């Protein structure tokens, strides 16, 4: 059975899926990192693939930009396609002095200005958390690879272009390591539906310093994030 947004068949997805926002990044990962990858869904151009990584079945699929888009895919992958482990791999903007371009940030938690988790919890706060074992495995893998990772709180913003930029220093003063747009929803959907989730982000921009990665650095650091996510997937 397919859904309104995913035209894969039951069993087409592996238990573990990597999810970038960009469907073309999903295609790039399928073509360059997975073996025997085949396209399993393409509704609205939101491409998804399943193959193997070092012998283990792994899927990769885009989720689009922002919480409403991503939440649809998270929900349907868990409820209809029995996906158990979701690893978002994304880009983020840094606002903290201790976080620099090309760093990897593991989102142990995710704050947000979105109301989605409050809708779930009848307007009460919900601590949107990654699965502890996935965080631990990712940190172990990063240490083995000698990668610089920061672990802490992300901020999932509903607005890429905020009118209230004075919020960024306030976020920084509360220890937010990176601003992106989906992790808080991923953690809320996974908690509600009994799945496990993790977010790993590459710092592509320093919002307060107006710094941005150039094309070469983007490629290198995306490679680090992708292999970190895939080697973490092997441990699950
Ligand atoms: O690089 P991705 O995974 O798309 O993530 C970040 O980039 C997009 C904004 O440019 C948002 O989706 C944000 O979360
Ligand atoms: O959401 C995002 C993603 C990358 N860089 C940003 O500044 N924000």
UniProtKB/TrEMBL annotation:
Q: Which family does it belong to?
A: Belongs to the PNP/UDP phosphorylase family.
Q: What does this protein do?
A: Catalyzes the reversible phosphorolytic breakdown of the N-glycosidic bond in the beta-(deoxy)ribonucleoside molecules, with the formation of the corresponding free purine bases and pentose-1-phosphate.
What this protein catalyses is: uridine + phosphate = alpha-D-ribose 1-phosphate + uracil; a purine 2'-deoxy-D-ribonucleoside + phosphate = a purine nucleobase + 2-deoxy-alpha-D-ribose 1-phosphate; a purine D-ribonucleoside + phosphate = a purine nucleobase + alpha-D-ribose 1-phosphate
The record ties this protein, via Gene3D superfamilies, to: Nucleoside phosphorylase domain (3.40.50.1580)
| Complex and partners | Homohexamer; trimer of homodimers.
* The protein's name in its UniProt record: Purine nucleoside phosphorylase DeoD-type
Q: Name one GO biological process term.
A: purine nucleoside catabolic process
> Active-site residues?
205
Top enzyme class, one word, equals transferase
| Enzyme nomenclature, EC number | 2.4.2.1
Nucleoside phosphorylase domain spans which residues?
A: 17-219
Residues recorded as binding a purine D-ribonucleoside, renumbered to this chain, are: 5, 180-182, 204-205
Q: Gene encoding it?
A: deoD_1
Per the record, its GO cellular-component terms are: cytosol
Binding, phosphate: 21, 25, 44, 88-91
